[in-house]
Specification:
heterodimer, A: about 170 residues, seven-stranded antiparallel β-sheet, two-stranded antiparallel ribbon, about 40% strand, B: about 140 residues
């Protein structure tokens, strides 16, 4: 059976970009810092492993985020890759709430940044570079410590959250 | 170049950049004054005042050191360095609280005893580069 042809367009407006990028599934991370004893954090799906050796990661954060400024006040960050049973944490950290850290669901990592308990994996890292890219800043950080559980990660696609434990292998 | 003019220029640079006092500098300037620096467009005295105000709002403890001053005919070449703490937002980059040091050279051109042109080698992005912040030009 012939493969369907991809329809191409020169339109690069916001709805078109959203429509294209929703085809790329991601997990959900909570990126955190601790500034003068106050925990700060936000939900980020623009997270990626940059290289394994050296161990570098990158996260991309919009300037309008309430956590944005704190990512310039300290280099130490935490990245928690959320598990499928943590949808409440996603919603909490996707908001502008001042009470994001209220409750007993997080711990402090060795580098001082908060880490979400029960996450599929956690990363402690030190920011090395901040790349200013228009409305966003790309933070490149070197991993200093990691942790993981057996909890399957959450999957984000087209504005919805999915449980990765039921994924069907195709190869 | 008379010696007092050179000394007045150095004094005016300290007053403007370290204390935000622009009167001394403005007394040296011809109405046609223009400044260019690095890859920035040329700008006039009013825009220069804005640069002083906005830079000092971000780096309020700025200290300027004049390393060399060479005057010849109607030109003065100044090699300078400065140290400051990044205390306020600068070029949309939030305060990092870090101390940054930058250096550069600026050439001043006088005509009939008044400053008509200032041309610097320094670019604002260099300052942020010293803080580990890189501007992606394509973005």
């Amino acid at each position: 059976m012939p493969l369907p042809k991809v329809e191409h367009t020169d339109v690069t407006d916001v709805p078109s970009m959203k429509y294209v990028h929703r085809n790329f599934m991601t997990g959900v991370t909570i990126v955190t810092t601790m500034v003068e004893g106050t925990p700060r954090g936000l939900a980020v799906n623009a997270f990626s492993c940059l290289s394994l050796d050296p161990p570098l990661i990158m996260v991309c954060v919009q300037r309008t985020s309430s956590t944005f400024q704190s990512l310039f006040q300290t280099n130490s960050i935490g990245v928690s890759i959320l598990a499928a049973n943590q949808t409440d944490i996603v919603r909490r950290f996707a908001s502008k709430s001042n009470e994001k850290f209220a409750g007993d669901f997080w711990s402090i990592g060795e580098n001082g940044a908060p880490l979400i308990d029960g996450a599929s994996a956690t990363i402690e890292a030190e920011i090395q570079e901040r790349l200013q890219a228009s409305t966003h800043t790309v933070f490149i950080a070197r991993v200093t410590r990691t942790g993981h559980t057996d909890n399957d990660p959450i999957v984000y696609s087209v504005g919805r959250l999915f449980d990765s434990s039921g994924l069907k292998p195709i190869e | 170049m008379n010696r007092s003019l050179k000394d007045r220029l150095v004094s005016a640079l300290h007053a403007a950049w370290e204390r935000g006092e622009t009167d001394e500098f403005e007394a040296l300037v011809n109405p046609s004054y223009q400044r260019s620096s690095g890859d920035q467009d040329r700008f006039d005295l009013e825009q220069w005042r804005f640069v002083i105000t906005s830079t000092r709002a971000s780096f309020s403890d700025l200290r300027l050191t004049i390393e060399d001053v060479i005057a010849e005919d109607d030109k003065v070449a100044v090699r300078w360095s400065s140290v400051a703490t990044h205390r306020g937002s600068y070029m949309d980059v939030p305060a990092t609280g870090r101390v940054v040091a930058v250096e550069g050279a600026t050439f001043f051109v006088f005509r009939d005893g008044l400053l008509v042109e200032e041309r610097g080698t320094w670019m604002p992005t260099q300052l942020l580069g010293a803080l580990g912040i890189v501007f992606l030009r394509g973005a």
